Protein 1
Amino acid sequence: MDPNRVLLFDTTLRDGEQSPGISLNTQEKLEIAHQLARLGVDVIEAGFPITSPGDFEAVQAISREIEGPIVAALARCFVADIEAAADAVRDAERPRIHVFISTSDIHIEHQLQSTREDVKGQARAAVAQARERCEDVEFSPMDATRADIEFTAEVCQMAIDEGATTINIPDTVGYTMPHEHTAYLERLYALTPGLKDVVLSVHCHDDLGLAVANSLAGLLAGARQVEAAVNGIGERAGNASLEELIMLLHTRAADIGLQTGAVTTEIARTSRLVSRLTGYPIQPNKAIVGRNAFAHESGIHQDGVLKERTTYEIMDATTVGLESNELVLGKHSGRHALKQALEDLGFEVSGQALNTAFKRFKEIADKKKQVTAMDLEALVAEELREEVTGYTLEWFDVEASSRRPPHATVAVATPDGGEVTGSFTGDGPVDAIFRAINAAVGHEPKLREFRVEAVTGGEDALGETSVVVELDGQTGSGQGVSTDILEAAGRAYVRALSNAIRRAELAARGEAVPSATP
Ligand code: KIV
Ligand code: ZN
């Protein structure tokens, strides 16, 4: 392989999914995995199969569907973990098992309550077992950057002797600094003779805001795989941001001299999809994908960019795919045009799903002059979710006035094809609709989160709402899209409630709740 080619290992669906409040179902994980494949990542870490039947099912589904990237599954150094990971990726075109165990004394003593000798034995046996099931095995000494480097090198050499093909060095708690990371890896190369024959990888967390800088330091020290997550999501402050790393290597290629296989024009869409499905908003000033990343406020900057873009821009917005807000469909567009536009966006929609998408498209196109690619993305994400939920909002009436409390009446279609109605007088129109829905379906969840965002700019912009509710200790999230914020809110609330009901019912029956985080 080209010695300057950097492998992109995406952990959005594993480390990213460990972020508080994120709970993706298999369908959503598949959608993200397909988009990651379009983005051109080399490895998709699809999950941690031992942790729940839902995680296992998602890793298996991704393994069966995804073509191109390697599909990796995470496992601790336990027999059952490795068997679950191996079974889950068995049908992948290019499977990988990723095993990890801590090498820092602080973890060995307090978390594992074990000894260095035991860690060596476990690592050796686990890599050997994983190699029996899969030719591609990655080994990670967890918390390596706070560990004794001699001991970590010894464990890594053992893993290599047992057949590990990638050694990944995690900065698990985001503690290291760029110059320290470079020195660490250079010393690790010196202490681990076999390291030059395998791929060295880095996995950096952002607790001190250094994840991307530390990842770059790792690449400069010889690593040729970098682990990252879309929008930088992940444990605590998150992982290195995938889009920042891609654009760093792309924009400064002449100086850094390393390449990736990323299709940069897919970045914006990938970021929006992950944000939408995880419910994690993107801060406006976020590098590469934030709303303001290519906006110029000051007159001097605007003047400069109008005269010559490069005066104040080091990247072109079109390089990261931000041109996709162009008009794609009009109010007279037919079903075929919609199907084609969705295919161009990477969504294969047919049958009943296409009928539903078309009905919703027409409703929106009637109210909105231009239906853009970003509108369609929002719509499809919303409609795809419908398949896994039970209730849907049929209609609502709300009387709102600043002189008396708003009163709402709603009708909700039930999973068995019936209809229930409910009414409530609330503190505001949204509150009245939410509580009327509670009255209709007979549940009283706690509202944990409610967000409203405009999908695009403009007066007739679609509003996209995200709702998270909690019922009997189980959370459920949902999204809604409409030109009418109240309708979008109602749609999102019904979906969130449906998801929470489903999860609460499973938990009450003692069955595994899907998408529980590890
Ligand atoms: O941060 C970490 O140490 C991890 C490992 C499982 C690679 O996520
Ligand atoms: Zn991590």
Note: The chain has three domains: 7-278, 327-385, 389-508.
Protein 2
Amino acid sequence: MSTRKLYIETYGCQMNVLDSEVVAAILQQQNYQLTGELHEADLVLVNTCSIRDNAEQRVRSRLQHFKGLKQGTRPVTVGVIGCMAERLKEKLLEEEKVVDLVVGPDAYRELPLLLQEVGSGQKGVNTLLSLEETYGDINPVRMDRNHVTSFVAIMRGCNNFCSYCVVPGTRGRERSRDPETIIRETTELFQRGYREVTLLGQNVNSYRWKNGGNELQFEKLLERVAVIDPDLRVRFATSHPKDMSDDLLKVMAAHPNLCRSVHLPVQSGSTEVLQRMKRRYTREHYMDRISAIRKYLPEASISTDIITGFCGETEAEHQQTLSLMKWVGYDFSYMFKYSERPGTFAAERYEDDVPDEIKTHRLNEVIDLQMRLSLESKERDVGRTFQVLVEGTSKKSDDHLYGRTSQNKVVVFPKRDIKRGDYINISVTDCTSATLIGEVI
Ligand code: SAH
Ligand code: SF4
Ligand code: F3S
């Protein structure tokens, strides 16, 4: 078999980044070699996201661009994989003529077979979802740039059905990965020089592995990963406020290499909006969880996700989001305007009735507030010393390196004789709302 070239472009969340690495591993077995050069690719795959309409529009305009690839003399196959493939299925072939291949997130093992079908002049489609697939035995081909930080999937799918969200539809039911394969993969990464892993799942708190009569829950898994080596930093995402337990926070407190940073998406500060979102917690419950984090991990940073302009959101409800943001004092947030997604509970039952300009106005208020909170959060660190894991050379200056604190804040500092993957102590001397600036001590 001659070697062929594979080009993958990835959109969406970290889970998709990992999936692209799994796909690369599957295709490597078929003699496909990764390339970063679109023009030399025999197979172009776009790993797609459906979370908001603009994510899909971006992919569609990329597909338009790929039409040009097919005008050459060499045959080029174009495939859409990931969440948009799952959501649109065969419809994608009709709507985007450039596409030869449509493969959903649970069908990547079928890629070799589907490519054969495409090779014989057919279109290849497989969007079957699975109750078991975790790709647990596949060793992803790492595509990160720094060789210091990496992701490890611990589960797939989601059973929460938040009313606005496509993920349960595009990723299927929740399933946990065999812990032995998680430990093996993480240990191997450490041995190869990686110094930080992020354990990934849509709702890691509901990780559960049954083996005979025994059940392993997330806290226990995290403990097992923590003891692989004290020099391995461990992060995880995403936690769901309804399931985040004190037991988990106690495990974090007991292991200094479990990073002092909790991502706890709130979505809205109003109990009524949360109810319409089917988040299954109240504003008060969320505040109670924040208090628990502060109690067990006083030095932890806290980040969140926020949606503005969800169906029926009043000005008063929006104000509750702003007041909760101030109460928590988030160190960082991902902030979005609500985008109605076909097939979700919200699309079918509620009216998307907040006018776009009000959604935007509210989003801007949320962003402005977060800018202020982020700056305050960084300013609190000036004058303090942090252990930093070095990730590489600063994007803005060759004379500077950058790394992260346990709290997940980026620190930039003058270059010294230090390699990426090293831990060093940095004294923070200055900051912007996005970055800490410091000196090696
Ligand atoms: N599983 C994670 C995150 C999944 S998607 C969780 O439950 O928190 C990442 C973020 O995208 C969500 O937290 C939410 O803030 C946002 N999001 C999801 N669906 C959206 C939609 N229809 N419109 C706007 N933002 C959305
Ligand atoms: Fe979507 Fe909710 Fe599942 Fe997160 S928990 S992926 S927001 S349905
Ligand atoms: Fe997007 Fe799918 Fe992730 S919809 S956010 S790529 S799970």
Note: The chain has a mean pLDDT of 97.
